[in-house]
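Predict fold of triacylglycerol lipase; 424 aa.
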Amino acid sequence: MNEFFKKITSTLVIISFLCLIPTPIYAENNSQSTLKDKTNDYPIIMVHGLFGWGNDELGINYWGGESSLKEILESKGYTVYTPTIGPVSSNWDRACELYAYIKGGTVDYGEYHSKKYGHNRYGTTYPGIYPELGNNNANDIKKIHLVGHSMGGETIRVLAQLLEQGDKNEINSTGKNTSPLFTGNHHWIKSITTIATPHNGSQEAKKQISLEPFVHQYIAALAAKYGANPDTAKLDFKLDQWGLKREPNESYEDYYKRVSQSNIWNETKDLSIWDLSHEGAKELNSWVSAQSDIYYFSIACSDTHKDLSTGYQVPNINMISLLKKSSLFLGSYTCNNPNEVPIDNSWWKNDGVVSISSAIGPTIGSTDKIINFDGVPQKGVWNYLGLINNIDHIEVVGQSEPIYKHYLQNKFIDLAKTLTTLPN
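Predicted 3D structure, encoded as tokens:
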């Protein structure tokens, strides 16, 4: 198998398939918002991470596992959507797909971007789940709340940047035919919340673990648990722009093999593997910044403790076994290589996939301001909601024992309350 793809499906597989369950929650040591009156009823759109999915594939809820967080929030009166976008695509491509999913229409990756990286400009056509986004009715602009888990947090940051600031290269390339996504001045996002997001990259993207058909094992486990068949499920890498579309009668095994053996893994930075590296995150942070009219929130998770004999961070007993190897690596890795982001022991405490220092907010290559949330949210800065202790990258999205499920479900409800009571 292509060595570069091995790196993705092993390092990022853990950064994804296991980490692709987003979830917003307040840390126990932080003040709850005192806002009581509902100020908006904007939809909440929950965006998965690497190797993630919405609520359709395998009949399994990415958000909540056996219990759908989407349905739980809807039962409380909130409007919630859980899109499926490219599970291994770059944040740029995923942001373009998310925009089309929301507004409706054919995905436009941008002429300049597509030519630069050598893939098709257009992708899937969506009916649109909220085509009224951006409509102005008596000075009331229709907006959205975006919640992203893991890589999903980076994707929604890119979407906000493009909507508000546009992209000069795309405008120069296509002029009047430029997609509204790239023209700028669209203030359509009320808030952004990131959960366990590697804003500064993840050490896991540095490590190449031998791929024990990890993806296959994970899918097989899910299928066995929920009675689904991978061959008939809607599992799709969504790499149509690269000419890697899953054929109607193609088995998952054959499709996976075709994708994994593609040359794209060696030839481009326009994929998740680059964005999730420290250097890729630094590059992204250099042009993606917090917008002055948007509320930004971040949540970090930790499920490790210090080993007194080595000084390293090691997994807590409750951490899911599939994350422990990754966690051990994150908890001891350092880097002082020239031209690479330096990594020291301040990066060691982690949730099995992402370091606390990376989840708090963008700092490497970024000028964004980060503050500790005190109950009064501020626009244009990162309101750090705090650390969730003894919760790993998967548990934080509801894939956990019942005792944790109810706790986390309530935290999602708390988040929804906060988002819909934000000041204007």
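DSSP finds 14 helices and 13 strands in the chain.
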